[in-house]
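hey
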């Protein structure tokens, strides 16, 4: 049985906005190491993830450098750290529904992916009821492996991959929801104002945890609390409430936040910096063709 029938390749290509000449590359980009029903290798074995990660870092660096010419090196580095990371790519994978095409044989991985997808697709009020939800690394991996596969299939046409990247990562590159962790932001504000910030130990209650935050601001004692199934989530909720209250009282950091800096900065058209080479010729005989990828029996146990 051909492996090519296990993925709706036309639909996936439509999501990627690219038609593959060599379908086997696209298939391999979505095969997880736990999937042992074929002998064609996975995205890790074929180095597609490695290649995609490397080219995305270069392309995103080029984007930030050309779009935000007035930002300082440290600010550009912060933006790149926010953009070029697995968490950002995981969110892109869910938004583009790439998780629907993943080939894997791990019940634990299936559960983790489904839980995260439900979390992302829920409303803000519903998310507060979720326990601490981990970002499944595999979803970010397939975004990187997809880019790696496109780069190989196109003969290292970096200009083409650049155009695809701009459309694929638009939700991340727009920085529409740029925000620091509220706990970190609260710490920085209190340090700047020289306020005493205390995080008493979480209290176990029925169905979760109760977390309290205390701030000794001048002669005032401010206290904030929140409850959640997860103590970490409860702490973030309490920190967010504390930040809102502190701002309402006029307590703000002297420096602009990264979000404010990005929103107020001059923006220019995105450019691919330093690329004017011709596409190279690739020997595709070294790649496994889609029709040669077949299913086989496996007794391997589930792995995440």
């Amino acid at each position: 049985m051909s492996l090519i029938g296990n993925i709706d390749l036309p639909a996936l290509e439509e999501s990627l906005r690219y038609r593959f000449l060599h379908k086997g590359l696209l298939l391999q980009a979505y095969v997880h190491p736990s999937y042992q029903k074929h002998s064609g290798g996975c995205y890790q074995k074929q180095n597609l993830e490695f290649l995609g990660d490397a080219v995305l870092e270069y392309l995103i660096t080029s984007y930030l450098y050309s779009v935000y010419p007035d930002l300082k090196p440290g600010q550009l580095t912060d933006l790149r750290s926010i953009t070029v990371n697995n968490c950002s790519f995981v969110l892109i994978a869910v938004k583009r529904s790439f998780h629907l095409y993943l080939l894997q044989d791990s019940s634990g991985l299936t559960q983790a992916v489904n839980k995260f997808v439900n979390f992302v697709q829920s409303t803000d009020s519903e998310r507060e009821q979720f326990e601490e939800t981990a970002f499944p690394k595999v979803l970010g991996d397939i975004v990187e492996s997809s880019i790696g596969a496109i780069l190989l299939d196109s003969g290292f046409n970096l200009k083409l991959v650049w155009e695809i990247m701009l459309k694929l990562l638009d939700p991340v590159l727009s920085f529409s929801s740029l925000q620091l962790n509220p706990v970190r932001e609260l710490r920085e504000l209190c340090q700047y104002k020289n306020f005493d910030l205390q995080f008493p130990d979480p209290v176990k209650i029925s169905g979760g945890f109760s977390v309290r935050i205390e701030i000794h601001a001048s002669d005032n004692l401010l206290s904030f609390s929140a409850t959640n199934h997860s103590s970490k989530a409860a702490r973030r909720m309490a920190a967010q409430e504390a930040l809102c209250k502190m701002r309402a009282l006029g307590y703000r950091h002297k420096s602009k936040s990264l979000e404010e800096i990005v929103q107020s900065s001059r923006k220019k058209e995105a450019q691919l910096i330093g690329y004017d080479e011709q596409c190279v010729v690739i020997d595709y005989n070294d790649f496994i063709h889609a029709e040669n990828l077949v299913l086989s029996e496996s007794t391997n146990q589930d792995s995440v």
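The beta strands are 196-198, 203-205, 208-217, 220-228. Residues 123 and 129 are 10 Å apart (CA to CA).
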